[in-house]
Fold this protein.
Amino acid sequence: MRSGGPGVKWLVAGFAALLPVLFIPMSVDAYILPRATLVLIAAPVLFGIGLARGGRPGALKLPALAVLLAALLAWVLSPAPALGLVGAYGRYESVLMRIAYLALFFGASWLVRAPAGSAPSPATDAGARAQRGAASGVESVVSGFLLGAAIISLEALFEAVTHSLPVPDGNLGQHNLLGVMLAMALPLAVLRGLRSWRSLPLVLLIGLGLLVSESRSAWLGAAGGLALLVLFLVPQRRLRWALAGGALALVALLLILLVSPLRNLNQDPGTARVGVWRDAVHVIAARPITGWGEEGFGLIYGRWQSADWQPGSNFDRAHSVPLDLAASQGLLGLLACAWFWIQIWRRLWAERGLANAGLAAALGAYTAWGLLNFDWAPVTAIFWLLGGLAYEPGWGPARARLAPALALLPLGLAMVAFALSAQLADLYYYRGDPRTAARLDPLQSEYHAAIGTYRQLRLAATLGDPDPSVWVRLGEMESSLTAARADYRRALLIYPFDATARQRLG
């Protein structure tokens, strides 16, 4: 029996190393879009190769199908399907991105862990070699990820020392993204430090990068990840004490973040999140089964927004992964995703020990962070990738292995073409040519709004642009007062505290 092979394993490792560090300075969205493009290209490639080699979902077949169908159903029934297909500019959490996350999960699992033939018993020599090969493949991917994490840590420390940014972001474009990327990497580095003192400088480097990120949610996530690392490593007889100690440590850290001066770090006491969460419950209750579709929250939230939680800015996310998922995909999507990940955690806990400790801790760090934040491709893709490494996949018969891959080839090619056209459009946008950008990516409302003519602004609004200023600008161009007032009211449906729209109506 042969394993996935070093070539395909290094494809996964290369992706894990490149995603944290990739950015394109000669584009408007220099940080998020390049990484989102990489995800949309790599996901179908890795999935297609794994499927052609015989990979199958195995025990996750039904949960994975539920996740896929929930995302598609929410998109089909969305009030803004164009927005749900391409994603809001700067976010890109579209239905295609949801499919890409699932493809990354299985692609990583099939290429790194799956054998290329019928699996022998672990008790045999061949079985032992296969297990060692899978472990080696996981380690190579983790090494790639840690390499990328080390680079962005160095970048963040340089930004902190030179004060080149108000808050270091490690060239990720947002300090919370830097924080959670390093929070996932820290327990993996600590585990290597426990194995060899040579990895201790890496632990220090990643820890310092996490510190200067000034992301309190990432600090909490890292603490949760390290607590899980301990739980997975301690003997069964000490598990109860370790669980109690970890819970006390997390409660103590949470109290420190709530009552110490850290509560007002970056002038953000966190009260806006609490208000948005409370309002988001009404958004979910208004469409509880299928939700409002990917990226639909920003268009709908204003109807239930009870206060101006962040003056001058409208919210396009609920800032909590469970609430965001329930708002975008309804209870169907939330339950499907819970079903999927519960299967992963059950397997990890059933095989608690050194082999799964690092992956479980990294997944736990992201999960804790996600309670206070939202999915975003640069870090969420790593989360799904690491989840795939923690899953023992199914493996199909040797006959007709290429047929499923060929059947899905058009979808994969469409995702790659879509990603490349989106990135190319932004390069033209950077050059001051939004018209060419709009031709290359016609469903992205940002480019139509940038052109600025009445017709293009109307098209941007029709596509579902979540920026209320689009409707305000339309109102200022209308020839009749009635039409202008209707546009201003539409702006207030997105952001009821928009000062310009309220002034025009007043």
Q: What stands out?
A: The domain at 434-505 is CATH 1.25.40.10 (Serine Threonine Protein Phosphatase 5, Tetratricopeptide repeat).
